[in-house]
Design brief:
39 strands, Molybdopterin biosynthesis moeA protein, domain 3, Molybdenum Cofactor Biosythetic Enzyme, Chain A, alpha/beta, 7-stranded mixed β-sheet, homodimer, molybdenum cofactor biosynthesis (chains A, B), 8-stranded mixed β-sheet, Molybdopterin biosynthesis moea protein, domain 2, extended, 16 helices
């Protein structure tokens, strides 16, 4: 081709890859038939022996020569002396001088022999040689994927070794000065190389043989040397570029110096920086460093190449129809892979979009499925029907209780305990008001909230105002307070102090943000005077993480988060963290499981062992 | 329970098994996260470190303290000296004394520093600590099956070891005096133990840990000792009884002496002798010895127990709708698992029933799918719609050319060569007339036949009489003759000789049977005088196998079969082995592949190397 392509469509990319992989040929290897499950035959395999390889009895009885039985009749029994027959069980050898078996039910034992009352038909009750497999029969043709049942046939036919296609060796080269191995402790500025191991697991799952090379720093020579070695040793190679744009150029330079770059940039999101090159007929894939981009490039591009070379179609993920909960605007430039949570709310399966950042690994771990938005569409309207490729077991979806709202560690405990009971708790953290809105939109079954009303009472006012006829389940009381560095070096004790330090805030609509605003007003502190008032984090834990990492000095949060990050804590207020839901949920089996758990001793013990919680009212139900 | 149950339904059996497996608990083990794909978490896993664990730049640019930028304006640029900023690439650490990153596009390098024209918003272009995962976040709950994407999240969160459920250890005990190991040569009367390795492969596929014990002879004490050991070492145990009924009783005696037999006999076919016992809470399955029975018991009973204990649902095989080609009568006593071949003939997917014997391993290897006939049904009418659970890749079905008719080794060669081209040749051997009938019933695309007409011309007469407007493709000429033992010890030279030896015949409707009858009449030999005229085998190879195994002395067959079994051969006649099909097939891509192959040099070379064939007319087409 010689033409370098930039930002092409996924379909074009696949075509170029198919063309590029065409000359790649796999060799064969001989392996033990017993351990050949899932491998693909390289050549036809013919039976080495017949099965059975001898004439066998198909019954328990006696083997005879039928000529000796011709005279037998009900009225005229025939006596056979011992030497004229042999007792056989099912599967036993029938000697060459016999040609029929008489069932045990049809003989009468007498002294010195047996009596029969019916002639035998030649070859009755006999399993002929090769009845199952005759020697020379083709047991498996070429290019057949060996299943468990094929192992039976091969071994029965005396084929103890099979010639199969070698596994596709895929080299994985992690690059970047910032990378450290998983077994090392990363310093500030360093990243754990988890991508290469995830790639290895994926390749293993596809039936390949992943070969991971050591991490290579950002050096033209080192990358070039490793790549040359990998191209020699593997069928295809993955270069995992560091996520750092500023230093990523080596990769492309090296690829150009050793071979030909066929494209760089595919119109998928996440995953745009994907590239493809050929080095002496060996396909080399440039996979971006951001984990979510990396996943989609592996899943859509490298996997496509892998199965083309394997000359096999892979089993597609299951798909379900769902209704998108919120409008999603998507660029006309790219196919977008939108990660969604799934939940059956009412009769409809609802797909709620998750965070769209390429760097958020957890958005994949938390996702139940992926919706592909074609680049010819500007997005999806709320309520529109979409096809979701599901990432978890389909049968789990109906067992999932969907919770959207505020976060607390107790929700993790409940989630874990529900899993033990065969249910799932799908928990999205968007703050209390976000939870109420999700209930309104029918996206969620339940919403955990903590919203201080003007009357000083938690939650009821908000539910009345926004939802109406709903139910509140009292969950826990917890302490909110200032999370500060160990020893409180900046001596932060009241809201006035916040104007002289670096504050870390929560997002708008979260209960904690509303609590801060309430106290700021009460204490007559101007929010514009607080450095960091506009700095928003989505959970207590991420606020605490900033302070523990010394990138902030103080944030409002719950005691459990402070304990988790080993921070000091100055209590400010007690609050009610409750669960809101529509009353119809009271009859829902998933909710019943939730309820059973929060009222169990096991739950109480776990929560109390964390500290900072009061479970006095847990389980009480208020009809608003 | 204490009540022993005989011949219960599959549903009842499953319930009893669930009850019996209820107390079985799996322990946990710690494994390396990198190699944890597909394992199930034993407990929740919380992030050990945040990801990122430092404040990182989200852009290439400079890190600044936003306070130093407040005055900047398009009209009033601000100069920042070197000490007031740090150059950062995406992913780089942002030091604690900085709180914003300005993109490289928005700065102008000057001597001793940079100039900016816009103030920085605090925390702009910054990736906060824990943006992906905050320390303490639950990354995975209990009972979560680890996917490749989860490995990313775990490793990113510093979780290098995961606590997972141990694999279910399944003991496999092959029993029977007649069994020999796969690496041994079986004597007459001995059987290769292939079942245990097939079971091991299945258990591996389910995610278990198969533990195969050595073959145990038919001895009460030995079986008892091995079973005691296995029950101690494994979570569940499979006792694979020899197929010999007469000796199988030990198993049940042993089970009764060590524990409690819960049922023996399930109303499924094949697979009725299945049994289930509990020995001190350890489930023990009696799996019958016949390979096809064994497969269905493993697939329906043991697998059910395995996934109950694993507390996971397994992914069902794909199903397709098809139309059954022939009436199938089934017993009201049992659920029957009918093995079928699938082929898309015209617009319909046709399922053709295969042999129903429990001992024929190849009926599973050859099957494309399984139809379950419920025991409340007497069978299936021809043309009835059925659901087929498919055993091969769904996408292959449309690529399959269905051939039903006479067998010749060249059909195996073509099948193998079609596989290499991405097509399948599904070949059923029912004799020439069977092939013609299959075409009439629209079960097959093509039928290989060799039928001698009264005029001495092959095939055309039969096609005219039974099919009409069809097409004949000339394939090969081959030699038919007497297959006799090496050296022709019984001096068999003509048809008269057949009355004094043990003959092995072919089934009615086969071309070879018709050929024999033609010659017997011509030579005035009475078929009733031939010992073995009623002894029917289905292929040339199985006839040859009887003679090679000395269970017969002579049979009519093709030279290639005699060569394959190292027999002597006395030529009798040359015949035309041709392919019949409807003319619409000429446009069919599968047929085109077939045609391309038979006219290729590769095919000719392979056929000629076997010997006994003439390819003079190969590829000629006759419109009947």
């Amino acid at each position: 081709m010689g033409i370098f392509l930039n930002n092409i469509s996924l379909e074009e990319a696949k075509k170029i890859i198919e063309e590029g992989c065409r000359t790649l040929e796999l060799k064969n290897e001989e392996i033990d038939t017993r351990f050949s499950l899932g491998r693909t035959t390289y050549e036809p395999h013919f039976a080495m022996i017949s099965s059975p390889h001898f004439t066998a009895s198909a019954m328990d009885g006696i083997a005879v020569n039928y000529l000796h039985t011709l005279e037998a009749d009900i009225t005229k029994p025939v006596f056979l002396e011992n030497s004229k027959y042999e007792v056989v069980d099912t599967g036993d050898l029938v000697r060459d001088d016999f040609d029929a078996v008489i069932m045990v039910e049809d003989i009468e034992e007498v002294e010195g022999g047996v009596v029969i009352r019916k002639p035998a038909v030649p070859y009755q009750n006999i399993r002929p040689i090769g009845e199952d497999i005759a020697m020379g029969t083709m047991v498996l043709p070429s290019k057949h994927k060996i299943r468990a049942i094929d192992i039976s046939s091969l071994l029965a036919a005396g084929i103890n070794k099979v010639s199969v296609y070698e596994k596709i060796r895929v080299g994985i080269i992690p690059t970047g000065d910032e990378l450290v191995n998983v077994w090392e402790s990363p310093d500030k500025g360093q990243l754990i190389d988890y991508n290469s191991w995830t790639f290895a697991a994926m390749i293993e799952e596809w039936g390949g043989n992943p070969i991971r090379y050591d991490i290579v720093g950002d050096s033209y020579e080192l990358i070039r040397d490793t790549l040359k070695r990998a191209v020699n040793e593997c069928h295809m190679v993955i270069l995992n570029a560091g996520s750092a744009k500023g230093r990523g150029d080596f990769t492309e330079e090296v690829l150009k110096s050793l071979g030909e770059v066929k494209f760089h940039g595919v119109s998928i999101k996440p995953g745009r920086p994907a590239s493809f090159a050929l080095i002496k007929d060996t396909p080399v894939f440039g996979v971006p460093g951001y984990p979510v981009s990396a996943f989609f490039v592996m899943d859509n591009i490298v996997k496509h190449a892998f199965f083309k070379v394997k000359n096999e179609s892979f089993r597609e993920r299951e798909r379900v129809e769902a209704y998108i909960s919120r409008k999603v605007v998507s660029s006309l430039k790219n196919d977008e892979f939108l990660r969604v949570k799934l939940g059956k709310v009412g009769q409809k399966l609802v797909a709620s979009p998750l965070g769209r950042g390429a760097g958020v690994t957890m958005s994949l771990t938390n996702a139940d499925g992926v919706v592909k938005i074609d680049k010819n569409h500007e997005g999806i309207e709320a309520g529109e029907k979409v096809m979701v490729e599901i990432l978890k077991n389909k049968s789990n979806i109906d067992k999932t209780l969907v919770s959207i709202g505020s976060h607390d560690i107790v929700m993790d405990i409940i989630s874990d305990m529900m899993n033990m009971e065969g249910y799932d708790l799908s928990s999205s953290h968007v703050g209390s008001m976000g939870g109420i809105m999700a209930l309104k939109r029918n996206e969620a079954h339940i919403a955990p909230i903590h919203l201080l009303g003007e009357n000083g009472i938690y939650n009821i006012d908000y539910v009345k105002r926004y939802l109406g006829d709903y139910v509140i389940l009292k969950l826990i009381k917890r302490v909110q307070g200032f999370m500060v560095q160990k020893g409180n070096p900046l001596n932060i004790n009241n809201f006035k102090d916040l104007t002289r330090i670096r504050y870390v805030n929560r997002q708008k609509g979260s209960g904690t943000r509303l609590l801060l605003d309430y106290f700021l007003e009460k204490n007559e502190v101007d929010k514009n005077e607080i450095n960091g008032y506009t700095r928003e984090e989505l959970t207590h834990l991420t606020v605490a993480a900033q302070i523990a990492g010394k990138s902030g000095d103080c944030g409002l949060g719950v005691l459990s988060a402070a304990i988790c990050m080993n921070l000091d804590f100055i209590p400010i207020a007690n609050e009610d963290y409750d669960i809101v839901f529509h009353k119809s949920m009271l009859e829902d089996e998933r909710f019943k499981c939730f309820y059973k758990i929060i009222t169990s001793k096991g739950f109480k013990d776990k929560v109390m062992s964390i500290g900072g919680y009061d479970l006095e009212d847990t389980g009480k139900i208020i009809y608003v």
